[in-house]
Specification:
Length: about 525
Amino acid sequence: MREPLPPSHAATLDSLYGALPLAVLLAGPDYAVRYANREFFRLTECSPADLALMNFQDVLSIFCLGACENLDDYLTHPGIWHDMDKPIAMADGGLAWTRVRVDRAALPWGEDGFVLLVENVTRYKVAIEGLLNRKNLYQSIVETRPDLICCFLPDWSITYANTASARFFGTTREDIVGEDFLWMLDPTLRESFAQAVTGITLDNPMAELEYKAPSSDPDDPPLWMRWIIQGFFYKTGHIRDYQATGLDVTGQKVTESQFMHADRLVSLGTLVSEVAHEISNPNNFIMLNAPLVLDLWRGVSPGVEALARAQESGEAVKVGPDAFGGLPLAEVSQHVPQLLQGIIEGSVRIRDFVRELKNFARQDIEGGFEMLPVNDVVQSAVLLMSKTIGLHTSRFSVRYGAGLPLVRGRRQRLEQIVVNLVQNACHALTGAHQGIEIETFHHDATGSVRIAVRDEGVGIRPDDLPRVTEPFYSTKREQGGTGLGLSISLSIAREHGGQLLIESTPGQGTSAIVALPAAQAPHEGPL
């Protein structure tokens, strides 16, 4: 049985260790226990009477459950905490996970001895186990998914990648950890991906990026990928890390393209009934002028043949009054070029119209983005809609902005937006005296390039305005409207990183504006 400490020593030790959240036990050089604070008795089942019968080795065995037979194992590396493999029973009947530290030290009363520190780490143990369980659950979920899932730090170093990601990047899960995620991507995607990640903030924690993956084999079908990047933040608002999920949306893009292509064909069906007039007018020029040119040729051909024979024989050229079928040469020289010019212009007009019609009807799932002038897009759409416009209004105007930046997009789909908006504008008019105006311009505040289609028609009721871009919602159902035109136009605008803005006043008309980001300089703020 250990000798009790003098009261003065006990008071001194209580002032030093009594209020500590750690269990503290002091032993003399003979391993006899000299002191234990209140936390020691709360943390263990030992009572002061039990402790009086124990030495330092016995106390240590409480925590290591007999596994620490050699005290020197703990004294070889002083100052190191040792996590215990088993929980201990507490005074209140609960279990506690602990870590211990054993040091040789000079005791307050002057002799050398041992100090045992014990910390209750149950809370941390439970928290860590919870994190590990959530991690294992997370990995069990993401490992079975075909989507690419990668986690990376703000410096782009990868901390986790599922099997699908490693397979996609041509490496293993072990080798990909620590790699620079940005440099794992295709070089053509890095700049836009970095811009998307840079735009992630606490108020806007997610970003999306869609692109067509390049293929080394031109015969392979196109692969469309959509990356969804989410940022995770500390409570201070600073970014902690990111998770990027890559989705194969090829099937969706094919379906979406087919859906948009079907809408173009619906618009094309409306145009077909008017194509005959657009083609018949220039074709009439050809049909009328070609016989006249043929008749003139028949009249002048004898004279031409006589001239040719004279030149071949070296005879002097003699041209009589009947050499050109009785036609004055001045008249022939005047009318033949005019007739031929009419034929050429009619042919060019037919060629241009048919070409635009074919381009508009073409399915473009494999067509990538290109640099486009919006004025060319509008000109093509206006050419296609010229007959429809002429049937509905006598006041139509187009104002093309000068020096507009290029936009990056798909020509057919941007034309489809303009065709849809012009069709809606035409159907909104109640008479030919009401006008339609198209304008292209640069919006200085946002840096976007805009196409505005304005009409003086019936307008849209305030209750209908928020819903006009919903699929199958139509205010012209009795006129055969499908309710898809504006919905598809909005989808195309978003696909190009832009917006479709619609303003309307009943009885005064509607303004529909397509806002597209300029290709030369990234826009700042909303479009």
